[in-house]
């Protein structure tokens, strides 16, 4: 079976609706990609080294791919997870496992993305299967050796205008600076401030982390004031290197203030290893509120995606490390959790808060109502497990009626799989076009408005929500 | 761009299904409107004064309209919120803001309702836009000066048979009485008993409120017995003035009984300002159960719509007052919360309980299962944020399979926007017709049954659920 | 009105999609039925006595049927609930009530199943209505007297290959043994171990139950060790009689371990009636973890369907007994609840855990993510209130994108209504076909894959998930 990428894929089945959807899609398919939140490493572009083997590029680092193979009984080891550079044999083995288990991806976006990547990026003509595995591997490997498949060349071919990375507050952002200073490089690659680990005293290694933070900021973090100043300094460093947002993910979204003397006391106790669980929790929730305050001051958009139980399976964590496919969603609550924050900053000039969820019950119940009142709040695109055609449709239908089309962020790829970026944005544009065509078909929107809205969702919403 | 109200709007896109949906819709579009729950003021009809300016009629009091404009950056002040009668300049400014920001309503029911009102009630031909704002304003203002646009004339033109208002227990219901006694007035306008503020000792002003209640009931409310007797008396007053339901909204739906000596003790403590938060909470939950007991005795249908965080943004509350667009939903729980109530009264003769939710997860999980067993329980129409085409479709698909078509209330407009009533009911009839046509298309219902069901949803279900 | 069972019922309305759906359905409609979880009594087949009257067969024991009639005001007594064998008069009365209230089932799967049963199993041509009630009753009664309508004959006609029953741990499984040893009987009827009542010390009668358990296992259950050994022994007894799974349902899914000395202490206290509520809860949660341990050892698939408030209406429980239509869903939580269990056994060889829910919010948020990582976890088919066309479609669209098609169990009828089994499986096959056809129509799956997947969902997934 060849890979066949049908030009109408993901468009609505009804012939009349599809015809309009296709025209809408044609009007936006070629627009530049804005990627305001993702996990590509800036060094990839700064250094522009050729990619390694196909498995290291497309399988091992991508938990979307490895998790379903793991569920099907393939050990993560066989997929190259957590092993660093792979030998040719190891890479081929991983690739074969993928191809042998290709049917497990039926009905998933991973299948959709990978087929699009294989077909459109690498010109692969075979569908993955046991007997095509080696041929596809060879084809990709061959391509990866060509100059036109280096990161910068692909970046250009993908039509990316802005790419945001996600970075540790202690990162010196040298790669971002190098790109910004490189006259041969014209796109924007901007860092994102991601301070989670510095805000959670209950995490192993927190005390060391805040010491490192102090060094990076050249500030004494042995007390709470120094810690706050260090965070502020590192945020400034990020702003100076082009950052427009700070990204936050904790087990919940609460933002309860602490009197500063309590914050100071808990901070010291946590450094000494003496803080109780209740105290470290209270501290983290207080710090999320502090992050909002800093956002008001330095202008970084605050993005929030709470309610994930990280590393659900400790044995896998210990053997393979984090981000290996077993972060599992929890119920999310925003209404009461964010009330202290929004009471203070919800209508503050320039403050912007993007809410992501993987508990989709929050879309219509909390996120859309919040984004439909507060000028600061934006409904983040469906993300992670929900970044898939049917889930995106549920998001469209759940959020738009309450918050309209203008209060969403537009698409966010959130990926570490560089080569999947165009496939992901293309999927989103197809789904936007289908949704808008359906609204027109029911006479809820005029055709003219639908064309305008399709372009805005791609080119205006992300710029507005992320201050690009 | 002119407003074009397509005759097939909101009907399913598939041509075959649409053809049947259109026939179903044609069979019910002209039926009289039953509005068993809403927020129109009875004095409007009793006094029949001309409406004021277009902004005071269609924008300022309607938080559905103002919230999205606020999110788009328009201060509520500019929209006339909380300002009482508006000057011509202020009214025009508000109207212009609406027209300038018209695109923010794309995909929302507000846009749908307003376009239908503008087109069908006021004969406006232009779509709102910066350059049409003044022309539309003038057109509406002109119309509002005509006798045929007075409240009673519109009421007649809208084809409303029964309209329920929502009223404070201390209200003397003079307007309702005046209408009932007016030989020139033939429709039913009935009050609804809405006692929330008298049941929540934690609210500011509660002690004064129960004193007022005592005066209204001519009963000494300085102890719990008197308080109960006063509530019973005011309910009787409402029943005597045609009320058929009592409406309740608290942060949760719990109905845990208190021994009466505890209720009495907490009541006295609350009056003295000495009750703890736990006590006032327990008292409120107990009182919701008491309301059910009274409903068993006086026959008022009990309607319940819990789980909203009222006045989420205190600065807006302080400046503009309540009901200004920042009530935000919370997770709702009914199964355990209502168990004490349903254990006692769930099968009691004549007792009826209508459950509304804006947490749509409760539809299939709790509300439909409860309404599908208890003869007293009805699934309330999707309401507030969920009173929109896609949300209504989710309700239809989530509730019907478990509770059938007969255990729902039919449509409830719940609006304070008088002129939107026909547009709202029309929307519902279109969606009912589409849903039923889809069931027929899949051979889950015969065509004959679909026609019968369409008529029942409009003309039978609300009468049954609300005892009209 | 005659019953008309349209050949395309439940297939998608779009003509192009329907054509493919019909071909997919035709390819699987005749496959043998695998019923890996249900509530038919094995004695029915072992004894093969003629069924009683139509009401005792189709109404009284089926809470799906009686609950909506009860909601419509028909007393359960009139439907024969909890009355044992019915007189001819009582049976006819119950049957008439059903026919009189036939419209309350519009839009529900009960209507769909019953019409299919009446039409396809009993050859009834009339649709239930007041004036057809007696004629239909007579027709069914006549049929039930024929040898070809005895349980074994119907079982053969239904094309059932494997039927799992649900059984008390103390059951001697004589009926299963009789069937297994009967040379005239060739299908598999396997028991399922259902130990809930033995694991919940807070339930009335628990102490007596564990004594009975001790007797059945010939083990002294006066201490915790004996209790554990007795449970293990009874599981072995089930395994020896063909069981492949153990089924568990508690108010929540938590699996928190207790040190064994605490388990022992609580066990003794509970036997003496001295355990606190917190202790019995902790014990039950610990025991669910123990059940997983035993599953690892004896190979029984663990199936879990938590979060139901059993017997919501105590007066109905007292008068009519359990399983009479008032078990009401609660919110379900799996991510944290199952973490201790999955940390220990989530990747254990041979361990399998099937997760059912009637809180559909868990599908995309928790169940699909868990089933998409853990090789042990399967997403159970939508069940009970969710075993209906639209809910099944939501399941398909919520689970597949994250977990693919291979991590689901395939259909589970879970019914005590023997004659509804073919109708239920047929419904599922139609819905699978429709879903797959829609994926093909959007070019998300090839036609060839869709045919393969349709067959696997029926014939492979249940065998794999339930180790049939």
UniProtKB/TrEMBL annotation, chains A, B, C:
The gene is uxaC. This is Uronate isomerase. Belongs to the metallo-dependent hydrolases superfamily. Uronate isomerase family. It comes from the Bacteria. It catalyses: D-glucuronate = D-fructuronate. InterPro entries: Metal_Hydrolase (IPR032466), Uronate_isomerase (IPR003766). Its EC number is 5.3.1.12. Gene3D superfamilies: Metal-dependent hydrolases, uronate isomerase, domain 2, chain A.
């Amino acid at each position: 079976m060849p890979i066949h990428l049908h030009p109408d894929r993901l468009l609505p089945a009804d012939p009349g609706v599809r015809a309009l959807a296709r025209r809408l899609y044609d009007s936006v398919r070629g627009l530049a990609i804005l990627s305001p939140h993702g996990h590509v490493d800036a060094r990839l572009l700064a250094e522009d080294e050729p990619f390694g083997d196909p498995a290291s590029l497309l399988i091992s680092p991508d938990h979307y791919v490895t998790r379903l193979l793991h569920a099907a009984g393939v050990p993560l080891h066989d997929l190259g997870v957590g092993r660093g550079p792979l030998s040719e044999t190891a890479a081929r083995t991983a690739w074969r496992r993928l191809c042998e288990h290709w049917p497990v991806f039926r009905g998933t976006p991973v299948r959709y993305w990978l087929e699009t990547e294989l077909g459109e990026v690498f010109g692969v003509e075979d569908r993955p299967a046991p007997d095509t595995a080696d041929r596809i591997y060879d084809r990709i490997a061959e391509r990866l050796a060509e100059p036109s498949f280096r990161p910068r060349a692909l970046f250009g071919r993908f039509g990316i205008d802005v790419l945001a990375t996600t970075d540790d507050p202690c990162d010196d952002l040298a790669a971002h600076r190098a790109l910004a200073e490189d006259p041969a490089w014209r796109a924007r690659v901007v860092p994102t401030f991601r301070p989670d680990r510095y805000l959670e005293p209950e995490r192993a290694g927190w005390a060391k982390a805040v010491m490192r933070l102090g060094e990076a900021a050249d500030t004494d973090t042995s007390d709470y004031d120094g810690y706050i100043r260090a965070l502020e300094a590192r945020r400034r460093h990020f702003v100076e290197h082009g950052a427009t947002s700070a990204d936050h993910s904790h087990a919940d979204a609460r933002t309860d203030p602490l009197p500063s003397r309590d914050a100071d006391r808990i901070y010291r106790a946590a450094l000494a290893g003496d803080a109780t669980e209740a105290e470290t929790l209270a501290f983290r929730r207080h710090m999320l509120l502090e992050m909002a305050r800093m956002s008001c001051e330095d202008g970084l958009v605050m993005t929030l995606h709470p309610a994930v139980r990280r590393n659900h399976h400790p044995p896998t964590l210990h053997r393979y490390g984090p981000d290996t496919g077993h972060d599992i969603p929890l119920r999310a609550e925003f209404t009461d959790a964010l009330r202290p924050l929004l009471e203070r900053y919800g209508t503050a000039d320039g403050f912007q808060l993007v809410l992501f969820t993987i508990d989709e019950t929050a879309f219509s119940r909390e996120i859309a109502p919040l984004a439909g009142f507060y000028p600061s709040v934006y409904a983040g695109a469906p993300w992670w497990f929900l970044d898939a055609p049917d889930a995106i449709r549920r998001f469209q239908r759940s959020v738009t009626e309450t918050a309209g089309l203008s209060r969403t962020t537009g698409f966010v790829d959130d990926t570490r799989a560089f080569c999947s970026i165009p496939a992901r944005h293309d999927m989103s544009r197809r789904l936007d076009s289908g949704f808008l065509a359906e609204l027109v078909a029911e006479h809820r929107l005029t055709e003219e408005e639908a064309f305008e809205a399709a372009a805005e969702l791609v080119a205006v919403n992300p710029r507005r929500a992320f201050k690009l």
